[in-house]
Amino acid sequence: MGFFSFFLWFILLLSLLLPDVFLVHAFTGTYGINYGRIADNIPPPESVVTLLKAAKIKNIRIYDADHGVLRAFKGSGIEIIVGLGNEYLRDISVNEDRAVQWVKENVEPFLPGTLITGIAVGNEILGGADTELWEVLVPAVKNVYNALDQLRLANRIEVSSPHSEAVFATTFPPSAGAFKESILPYMRPLLQFFSQIGTPFYINAYPFLAYMSDPAHIDLNYALFLPNPGIYDAKTKLHYDNMFEAQIDAAYAALEKVGFDKMEVIVSETGWASKGDENEAGAILKNARTYNRNLRKKLLKKKGTPYRPRTVVKAYIFALFNENLKPGPTSERNFGLFKADGSTAYDIGFTGLVPSSASSFLGSIKGNGHDWYRVISGQADHL
Fold first, then answer.
1. Spatial contact of 302 and 312, defined as CB atoms under 8 Å apart
2. Active site members
3. Residue-wise pLDDT tens digits, 203-262
C-alpha cells in the first residue's frame, strides 16, 4: 500500500472511530445570539426567524427545546443550540433511558429540517448555589451524549455545558486565571469527557457585571472597548486593551493549569444592560450601545485574543430581546438588542421588526395567525 493510500485509509478509520471530534461544530460563525423568551410581549418565533435572517445572524442558543420555536426555524438555515434545563439534570443523570426519551421527543423529530447543532446540558451549574447539581452534571452530560450516540446523532450534535465566572478563583491578570479548588473535583472529569468528544469550554463572560461590581477600580473604557491605558500581564508580557479578551484568556490560563491547553474557549453569553437600578453602575443605553457595537466590530474581524491570536473569538450575545417577565434587578429585563415590538433597542447596525404601519418594508410576516410585523429595509454584515 502506497503512503497516500495508507494516509487516506487512516483518515477514514479515524473518522469512523472518532466522528464527534472530526465533524461536530455547533458554532460555525463568530457572532451568535441568545434567544431568551421569558416575556409575554415579544414577537412570535416565525417573525424572529425573519429578524435573524435580515440581520444575517446564523447561530443562536435557546434555553429549552420549545417545539414551536424548533418548528418555526425549520428550513431557516439558522444553527441552534437547545437547552436541557437544570431541572432535568437529577433525573437524567441516573436514567439513560430518560435521556434517550428526551432526545427522541425534543431533538430527533425536528431533524434535519431544523439545524439543531448542540445541546447545552444545564446552565451555570458549577459554582452555583445548588451543590447537589454539581454532583449530577457529569453523569447527565454523559447520558445525553450516550443517548445521541445510540440514536446515531453524536456525530451531528455537540454536547456542552456553559459556565459562569463563578467557577474561577482568580482571573486577574489573565495569566493567573485558575479554577476554584471547590469545583475542581467536578470540573476535571467534565473537562476530561469534553476533551474526549471535542467539546469547547463555554463561558458566560460579562465585563458589565465585573464593572458593576467594582466601578471605582475598573476603567469603564476598558470594559467598553474604548481607548484606555489597558493592563499589562507581566508573566506573558501581553497587553490587554479590553476586559472581554482578558476574560477569555483567563479561561485559557485556567484550562492550562488543569491540563487542557488544547481546549477552545467560546463565549456562550456576553452583553450589557441598557437600563438598571440606581445601584447598577453602568447600566445605561449609551454604554449598552457602545459595548455591543464595538463587540460586533471585533467579532467581525475574526481575530484571536492576545494569548491565543490564532484561535478566532466566537461569542453569543445576550440577548435578542428585552424580557419583561425575568425576575431580579431591572438590568435583567433590559439586555435585549431588540425591544418587545421587534424594533431595535439602539442602533448597532441591525435591522428590526416594526408595526406593519411603517413605510419601508422587505415583506410581511405571518405569526400566530396575525400579520403583526414587517422588516425595516436595511443592511447587515455577514457574521
1. yes
2. 124, 269
3. 999 999 999 999 999 999 999 999 999 999 999 999 999 999 999 999 999 999 999 999
